[in-house]
Amino acid sequence: MKKYKNYYVPSFFLILSILGIMAAKVSSNFILGELYNRFVRNGIFLLALILPIMAGMGINFSITIGAIAGQIGMLLVIDMGLEPKLGFVVAIIFSIILSIIFGNIIGTILNKAKGKEMIASMVIGFLGTNLYQLIFMVGYGTVIKPFNPDILLTRGIGVKSMLDAGNYRNLYRNILPIKIGDAEGSLIPIIIIVLVGVIVYLITKSKIGYHIKAVGENMVLSEKLGINVDRTRRTSIVLSTLLASLAQLMYIQNLGVLNVYTGHLNLDIFSAAALLAGGATFRKANIRNAFIGIFLFHTLFIVSPLAGQNIFKNPALGEYFRSFIAYGTIVFALMINLKQTEN
Q1: Which segments cross the bilayer (predicted)?
Q2: Exposure of 16 by Cβ count < 10 A (0-12 exposed, 13-18 middle, 19+ buried)?
Q3: For residue 178, what is the enclosing H or E element?
Q4: For labeling, which of 109, 186, 305, 313 is most exposed (least CB within 10 Å)?
Q5: Could you tell me the residue ranges of all domains in the chain?
Q6: CB-side exposure of 192: number of CA atoms within 13 Å?
Q7: Average pLDDT in the 198-210 region?
Q8: What is the pLDDT of residues 62-79, one digit of tens each?
Q9: Is 310 in contact with 285 (CB distance < 8 Å)?
Q10: Domain 7-162+187-333 CATH (choose: 2.10.260, 1.10.3470, 1.20.120, 3.90.1570)
């Protein structure tokens, strides 16, 4: 009976998804098309959460800082006016450099907050967002001189809230084209996400992965075995931040628009909720949980506003279902996790 406890949350969401689809009365093509886009935009974010959980640090809500690194990289290449293929490569390089720097800072802070990592990472995410917005609202155009003044607001200070990244949307549209439901796209982003999943899996099976698992299970014993606990925990955060930065680049590339100040908001909550919906806990998570969770959670996320609208005959009320589902998932998973821990 104990082994089936891991399937309580996924089973619950599977039932809710089926009921939601029935209530929403939408076509399978619509759902499949939306799932393709959401898988491409959010897949790597879920993978970015796995290593910190394995290290015993719980949900890393500071992946928003990794997303900020990705946004800065994309904003800089848009400002520089680089050709899309070269620009995307340069954006990746910028993002990797920034995410490694940010990840080390976050990891060092979280090592000072052992046992309270989730709360600390959430606060770090809020602080990082405020600093980022301050720099690009006030610093850009004053202290930082842009290459292209057109990206600034009419007053000449601060970046516009939305920048066009449409040129990046067609980077590989004609390479291995596919049609999934109502969506037309490419097989390339799916291959990239699967490869990232394989890389994360290989990391978990490597020496670094062994150290991360050992630290997550028992920090005191790991220290006695000669494992540098703080460095291992910091490494898991650096890798998580780096993956989040690459995930945000894929999100922007698929969307074709850079929402400068809001593009990274709530992705930590939605990613955590999706991972938990896939059967992960605050102590254990794997690749399977990520891929199951993204389909279950986002299926419900897609149909819930339409289902709420049809049930209550109120379009505005239907939209509240999105936030209710995201935060409700975390609360529900927390209750299940606490109950399993007590048992």
Answers
A1: 12-32, 44-68, 88-110, 122-143, 186-204, 235-252, 258-278, 290-308, 320-338
A2: buried
A3: strand 177-180
A4: 313
A5: 7-162+187-333
A6: 19
A7: 92
A8: 999 999 999 999 999 998
A9: no
A10: 1.10.3470
Q: How many CB atoms within 10 Å of residue 47?
A: 28
* Phi then psi dihedrals of residue 81, to 5 deg: 70, 35
Q: How far apart are CA 291 and CA 13, in angstroms?
A: 14
Q: How far is CA 246 from CA 47, 68, 74, 142, 229, in A?
A: 11, 10, 11, 29, 26
User: What would the two tokens of residue 59 be?
Assistant: 């949900």
Angle made by CA atoms 274, 277, 279, in degrees to the nearest 5: 120
Q: What does the alpha-carbon distance between residue 154 and residue 4 come to, in Å, rounded to a whole number?
A: 59
Query: In the structure encoding, which two tokens stand for residue 22, read together?
Result: 């029935």
For 76-137, the DSSP string reads: HHHHHT--HHHHHHHHHHHHHHHHHHHHHHHHHHHHTTTT-HHHHHHHHHHHHHHHHHHIII
163 phi, psi to nearest 5 deg: -120, 145
Q: Which residue has the tokens 């990592």?
A: 117
Backbone angles phi, psi at 257, to 5 degrees: -140, 140
Task: Quickly list DSSP for 267-299.
Answer: HHHHHHHHHHHTT--SS---HHHHHHHHHHHHH
Please, what's the largest Cα pairwise distance for the chain? 65
Q: Count the neighbouring beta carbons within 10 Å of the beta carbon of residue 195.
A: 10
State how far Cα 72 lies from the chain centre: 16
Which token pair is 219?
């920090």
Question: C-alpha dihedral over 22, 28, 29, 31, to 10 degrees?
Answer: 60
In this predicted structure, which of 143-147, 200-204, 246-250, 338-342 has the lowest mean pLDDT? Answer: 338-342
Phi-psi label, residue 26: left if phi above 0, alpha if psi -120 to 50, beta otherwise: beta
Q: Tokens 């999934």 appear where?
A: 180
Which residue has better confidence, 333 or 296?
296
- Cβ atoms of residues 239 and 17 within 8 Å: no
